[in-house]
Design a protein that fits this description.
Blueprint (H helix, E strand, L loop, with lengths): L23 H8 L9 H32 L4 E2 L5 E2 L1 H47 L2 H6 L2 H43 L1 H48 L1 H6 L3 H53 L5 H43 L22 E9 L7 E10 L4 E5 L6 H8 L7 E6 L2 E2 L5 H6 L1 E4 L10 H6 L7 H10 L3 H6 L17 H15 L3 E5 L7 H15 L3 E5 L11 E6 L2 E6 L1 H6 L4 H12 L1
Parallel strand pairs: 5-10, 5-11, 8-9, 9-10
Antiparallel strand pairs: 1-2, 3-4, 3-6, 6-7, 11-12
Helix pairs in contact: 1-9, 2-3, 2-5, 2-9, 3-5, 5-6, 5-9, 6-8, 6-9, 8-9, 13-15, 15-16
The chain binds adenosine-5'-triphosphate.
Length: about 600
Amino acid sequence: MARSGANTSGTTLEPEVAKTKLTKESFRQGLRIFRYVLPYRAKFSIGLLMLALSSSTFMVFPWVIGKLVDAANGKAIALPNGTVVSISQIALGLFGVILFQGIFSFGRIWFFTQVSEFTVRDIRQSLYAKFVSLPIPYFEKTRVGAITSRITSDVAQIQDTFSLTLAELFRQVTTLIVGVVAIMVVSVKLSLFMLATFPPIVLLAMFFGRKIRVLAKATQDELAKTNVIVEETLQGINTVKAFTNEQFETRRYTASLTNTVQAALKSNMYRGAFVSFVIIGLFGGIILVLWRAASLASLGQLSIGDLTSFALYTIFIGASVGGLGELYGKVQSTLGASERILEILDEPSEPTHRPRVAGTAPLQVRGDIEYRNVAFSYPTRPDLPVLKNIDFDIQSGEKIALVGPSGAGKSTIVQLLMQFYELSGGKILIDGRDIQLFDLTELRRHIGIVPQETLLFGGSIRENIAYGKTDATDAEITLAARKANAWQFISSFPEGLDTLVGERGVKLSGGQRQRVAIARAILKNPAILILDEATSALDSESEKLVQEAMDELMQNRTSIIIAHRLSTIRKVDKILVIDGGQIVEQGTHDELSNAENGLYANLLKLQFELR
Ligand SMILES: Nc1ncnc2c1ncn2[C@@H]1O[C@H](COP(=O)(O)OP(=O)(O)OP(=O)(O)O)[C@@H](O)[C@H]1O
């Protein structure tokens, strides 16, 4: 029952899978996960049939054994039609039973495995598709750890159910029912005696089991606390050392470990008591029943064969009742897991990838942008206005720059253009049309972004550039790389475009990564371009290459540059100076740099002095 146990090494502890109380509602909810089994219902039914057959042949076993024992004692064993069978024939029959049992078991495992593997694949796929289609705010309020644990441990829990728990449950229930009927047939007197002895013992065992589960959970919680200490201190090891708190932290960890050990000892004391209770209580019960059976047999009211059958059935029944307790816990965990999975699947997705109305042409975007009194607060901090009254226009093909102190709201302005968040007020229009009226996927297809920190995926340079257009040909990729000033370094690598970039692109320098990102954007060929300038300066040679690539990229596109180094934006058509979520100045570089006491003029002076 509490087999998952409460050790302190954490190795056998179940993941943080909370259990759900078995109520009608939770059961109904949990059953919704079964819609994923529907496509495989034929296989599932065959599996169920195999299971029924293997469970029932298994239950024939004690019966035939009993007959064998009786035959050994010289009793004539006859079939229902009156034919007397020999010991060898009974043994052969027994062999037949086992053979069927073996074949059915194989079939059950084979079919159920297929159902569980395919079902779990479908659930994982739906979950993943759901995750990537959820809006950005979802990821700001949910920890990545929680998301991955949904797709790994919760799904694994369900897989376990489809492949094992369900079969076990079915088998135990069959064993229980058939077992009770069988012992009744063997001897009503003895069965009644047994049924009076066993249920109280089983109830006690279940109570015990629950207590142990609670204690095991407490141990897990304590263990989790010790892990938090390790994680925290190792992540902040610099701080620990700087404050010379190594001994303090070690003491804190030791104290926490001691608590864990105490909790584990307590839970294991109960577990030990439980085991001895099972030995004494359950087996004591069996002895009691056997004693009664032996007495009946000695009086000639029960044959030795029936006694054997009875004893075997009793053991089966006992085992199945014990097993049911454990299965009850598993069913609870599964219901919890499926509830959490369904909760995510029920989250509303972003309205992306809507099928285009038949006959309409693909969306064309010129690239006129208008922000009309845009106001915004992040959903995680609704009370803090980040943008207020942002109002500006960009004509198609124009270049504008957003400048301002850190935290002013520059990145937020462009994120709203991508519709990562909903506006709190105002409107954004592209080509004179409210962006909410566009299909998100179609719209985003026309917006390119070169982010501040380029994130490359762990594959080759080719794959990373082709991320801008997944069906690009080699010629297109090479051309984009040339335009992005990236070809020179790519061709210097022995493996060229097939060079692996390492996790997150660590094998490339910062400037190289940026140029890969630019090549990506060139390949995407968007009408609107967002350039988030890197804050970390590159060396001047690299800087020049990146700048040239950016200039190439910006040609004939509406471009918004988030500028950190003011030297790069002298040529833009308009500069918007943002401060505290508002536009505080706007104009060309010449206009703004001559404004007395203007924020831009001051920023310019500051950068000049820093140099
Ligand atoms: N995801 C978020 N959730 C909540 N608040 C956020 C989020 N992102 C940014 N903010 C807050 O919004 C404000 C504007 O941030 P934003 O990133 O737009 O500034 P920025 O001008 O681009 O700054 P920087 O130049 O440092 O990149 C900041 O006060 C920031 O703390």
